[in-house]
Write a structure and sequence with these properties.
heterotrimer; A mainly alpha (100); B mainly alpha (167); C mainly alpha (656); B: 167 residues; C: 656 residues; mainly alpha; 27 helices; 3% strand; globular
Chain lengths: 100, 167, 656
């Protein structure tokens, strides 16, 4: 069997890559996708713990995470469409009306 | 080197490569497709762990609905390649080191078996789906119903947001 | 036996307080008659209450000491200072003088101040003064006495600076208060020392505890000496003795009734009262008594010499007051406390009369106070003239008026006390001569001689009866006031001393036998009258017979004359040595350095620091979303580290 640490290590790496993308990318949609990547990494960790402990609570939680991610994606993409309409650009640095 | 381990490394490697691709690609559509690869690999890993239901939901909802939505939006907005602007000093200099530090700290915490992590691996959970459904409709029925409400709200929100402006 | 008034002794000070509050709060738009009604009734009923209390004390309680605690004011551990009032023989005299003379002066003020602005304010302050003074004389412990002490200082400040729009008046008020404060500081230190030594400040307990202690001889600075000298400092400030007398001449800026009440009859006598009340403490200390007597005598002589050359009628009387107070302290210094109180009482009568009559003269002359611009008024303002003449005869010490008996008794005690007091007697006698001289000089310059004013500008008119009435009453008192202590060789018993004997002990046994003492007393009395006569005749010769002579003498003794005219330059000396350096210190160090730089700098610095911190933290809110993303990562990292800190330490420890 695969030791649980391997799964958790993978989860950590994926989360870190998601964080890197979150900081570095300028396209709003790409940033949003990196958030989804981070959520997935967390899901992996949950399922790994669920298997390690023998209980299914982790998997139930994963279901909820997926549902919430879906709702969030729907609304978030709606906002992204609005931003595109208002700023005529998908560059996150153009969304800077709060700058002095 | 058991077959399970080999499959694990293959899927894991593929997932990491997909994630790297997401970071390194310039066009959002390529990033989206890489993300789909990552999700499929993760679904495979869930299967490996014996969580069939979660794997199925991952593919159907995440891969089939959410990512499709992403691609729709990318195409709708005609997103092009990323422009290179550089307005944030802190992101330029401190961004990468910090993100890597985050990764490293997480990794360091989970690598050693100790209080945080079980060292031994368990067998596959029998009848996982049945147990999940029992839990979902018995112990977690209230959050479950709330999520349906949440989805309703999200649908309405998305509709309102994406409307064309009335002339 | 029932003593309802004594049981409610607080009524005596309370009535003036109510009068003060009523007039002060509501009197602004009242007609003069209503203000009068409130003020006069308050003081008048207070006087009647005092009479009743005295009657009960003498006849119902047979002169047994009465003391009642009305409520607890300060209770800290074993120390208790309450609102306790007491009545004994000394209090009887003080309370009757204060309420009686006070009431007469209130009546006088209704006439004198009739056309002044701030009428209600004047009577409010005057009643307030009465309240504090009564607290002072009725108090049964030092703490409550000090309340009255401070309060009369306040009332004095308010009344001296009554014409506060005039700079000299407000300056004089400040000067009085500040100089008093210096004395009060000494008084407080004295109280602290007494408390530390005896654990109580209540008169009865304190004197009982201290009586058995050993006396401290000359030159020994034990507890009694130091405490008494400190209390005496306070008395010097309040009663205008050297070196704290400088405020009293300036205090003449206030209206004349104020000068009469506060700076002649009552407030300035508070210092004498304190010394007399503490006689148990003072008699334990040889040094303190010597100091008191010497300072008193020196002040008496010093002030008399300045009074010789003053031209303002009120200033002459002011220096005369300082001088007479010196006599009272001289009496205390030689141990004749009863004589000192006797002179206090007679002085209250004739000095108040002198001031009120001077006020009448000033009123008649339409505000003129310089004697060189008066003259020949005796026919025009007859009642004022005759009453003032009686008062002058009294202060000069001519028998059978009151001043003769009191002054003579002081000089006699000074002479016969063993231990070399003779220089004090000599200066006391010389001062009596000078007193007679300058008082008659005042009479001759003001009322006799040529008319030195312009009739067209000044319409001399007699004062109304509201002012003349009190003058007449005080004149009668000045005549008969001394008769109660007619010396024994005239066939009468010294009623005054025997009345006070329960407090001071029997009449002082001198170094001489009874018969020799009697003949000495007669001789000294004759000597004193002769001195007064010399003074009168000299004044007569200089100011009536040869009016040009004073100017000639002044010219020939120019340096001496100028020094006297400038009051020995004392005010200037104080200004240069004390006031100027203090002002320089305050301006340059306390204000510019400490207040502006340090305190303001600290407060402004804190504000500046807050602004600077804000400037730095503002940079996190850049408006750029990518920087926000980085902050999110930083936050996540921080949370991770905080939660897993023990594990991190364990790992780091294990790794080493």
């Amino acid at each position: 069997m695969v030791p649980t640490q391997y799964y958790l290590l993978l989860s950590a790496i994926l989360f870190g890559l998601g964080a890197v993308a979150f900081v570095f990318k300028r396209n709003i949609i790409t940033i949003f996708m990196s958030i989804e990547l981070m959520l997935n990494a967390v899901n992996l960790a949950f399922v790994a713990f669920s298997q390690a402990s023998g209980k299914v609570d982790g998997q139930v939680f994963v279901l909820f995470v997926i549902v919430v991610a879906a709702a969030e994606a729907a609304v978030g993409l709606g906002i992204i469409i609005l931003i595109q309409r208002n700023r005529q650009s998908l560059n996150i640095e153009k969304v800077n009306l709060l700058k002095l | 080197m058991s077959p399970v381990l080999i499959i694990f490394f293959v899927l894991a490697g593929l997932a990491v490569l997909g994630a790297l691709n997401l970071v390194l690609q310039k066009h959002p559509i390529h990033s989206a497709l890489s993300l789909i690869v990552v999700m499929v690999c993760l679904a495979g890993l869930y299967l490996l762990m014996g969580a069939e239901f979660v794997a199925a939901v991952q593919i159907i909802v995440y891969g089939g609905a959410i990512m499709v939505l992403f691609i729709f939006v990318i195409m709708l907005l005609n997103a092009g390649e990323e422009e290179h602007t550089d307005f944030s000093k802190i992101a330029k200099f401190a961004g990468l080191p910090l993100a890597l530090a985050l990764t490293a700290s997480l990794a360091a915490l989970v690598v050693k078996p100790g209080q945080n992590v079980h060292g031994a691996t368990q067998a596959v959970i029998p009848k996982a789906t049945e147990q999940i459904s029992t839990m979902l409709f018995k112990d977690f029925v209230y959050p479950f119903e709330l999520t349906s409400f949440l989805i309703l709200v999200a649908i309405m929100g998305a509709l309102v947001l994406a409307q064309r402006e009335k002339k | 036996m029932p003593t309802p008034m004594l049981d409610h002794l607080w009524i005596i000070p309370l009535l003036p307080l109510l009068g003060a509050a009523t007039n002060g709060l509501f009197g602004k738009n009242w007609p003069n008659k209503l203000v009068n009604a409130v003020a006069l009734n308050a003081t008048g009923f207070s006087f009647l209450a005092a009479l009743e209390a005295v009657r009960e004390f003498i006849f119902v309680r047979n002169q047994e000491l009465f003391r009642k605690e009305f409520f607890d004011w300060i209770v800290a551990g074993s120390f208790r200072a309450g609102f306790d009032l007491q009545m004994d023989q000394l209090t009887v005299i003080m309370v009757l003088v204060v309420t009686g003379v006070g009431f007469l002066i209130h009546i006088y003020s209704t006439g004198y101040m009739a056309h002044e602005g701030g009428y209600y304010r004047f009577f409010s302050y005057l009643n307030l003064f009465m309240f504090f003074m009564l607290i002072l004389v009725l108090a049964a412990n030092y703490v409550l006495l000090f309340v009255g002490w401070e309060g009369v200082g306040l009332a004095s400040y308010l009344l001296i600076g009554f014409y506060f729009l005039k700079k000299s008046a407000s300056d004089a008020g400040k000067k009085a208060f500040i100089v008093n404060r210096i004395g009060d500081f000494g008084f407080m230190l004295g109280m602290f020392l007494l408390f530390k030594t005896f654990g109580t400040l209540d008169f009865t307990q304190l004197f009982a505890k201290s009586a058995p202690w050993a006396n401290e001889g000359w030159g020994v600075f034990g507890t009694f000496t130091v405490a008494c000298l400190l209390l005496f400092t306070g008395a010097c400030g309040k009663s205008a003795q050297l070196p704290l007398y400088v405020w009293l001449p300036d205090a003449m800026e206030g209206p004349t009734p104020v000068s009469a009440l506060i700076h002649a009859a009552t407030m300035v006598t508070a210092g004498v009262y304190v010394v007399v009340r503490s006689h148990v403490l003072f008699t334990h200390s040889e040094t303190a008594l010597v100091v008191v007597g010497t300072v008193g005598c020196a002040t008496a002589f010093f002030a008399a010499t300045i009074g010789l050359v003053q031209t303002d009628i009120k200033k002459v009387l002011a220096y005369s007051t300082v001088s007479q107070l010196g006599y009272m302290f001289l009496a205390c210094g030689v141990g004749a406390f009863g004589a000192g109180i006797f002179h206090l009482m007679t002085h209250a009568f004739f000095k108040a009369l002198l001031f009120l009559a001077a006020g009448s003269v000033i009123h008649a002359m339409g505000g003129e106070q310089d004697m060189l611009h008066m003259g020949g008024l005796s026919k025009k303002i007859k009642v004022t003239y005759w009453t003032m003449l009686i008062a002058t005869l009294a202060i000069a010490g001519f028998p059978p008026l009151a001043g003769f008996f009191s002054k003579d008794s002081i000089l006699f005690e000074a002479f016969q006390r063993e231990g070399g007091w003779h220089p004090l007697y000599f200066f006391g006698l010389l001062t009596a001569l000078l007193t007679s001289f300058y008082m008659f000089r005042l009479i001759f310059l003001t009322f006799h001689g040529k008319q030195r004013y312009d009739e067209h500008h000044v319409h001399v008119h007699e004062s109304p009866w509201s002012m003349l009435g009190p003058l007449v009453v005080l004149a009668v008192l000045s005549v008969i006031g001394g008769w109660m202590a007619a010396p024994s060789f005239w066939g009468g018993e010294d009623h005054f001393t025997s009345f006070l004997s329960p407090i001071f002990g029997a009449a002082h046994e001198g170094a001489l036998s009874e018969a020799t003492a009697h003949s000495f007393e007669l001789t000294l009395a004759v000597v004193a009258v002769v001195a007064a006569l010399i003074g009168l005749l000299t004044a007569f010769w200089l100011y009536i017979k040869q009016p040009g002579k004073p100017a000639e003498i002044a010219k020939s003794l120019k340096p001496l004359y100028t020094t006297l005219c400038n009051k020995y330059y004392v005010d200037e000396a104080y200004g240069a040595v004390i006031v100027k350096p203090l002002l320089a210190l305050s301006t340059n160090v306390l204000w510019k350095v400490i207040d502006v730089e340090m305190i303001d700098g600290t407060v402004n610095g804190i504000a500046h620091g807050a602004t600077a911190t804000g400037d730095i933290t503002r940079q996190t809110q850049s408006g750029n979303t990518r920087s926000y993303a980085v902050w999110v990562v930083i936050g996540a990292l921080a949370v991770l580290v905080i939660i897993f800190w023990p594990a991190i330490r364990a790992m780091a420890g294990g790794a080493q």
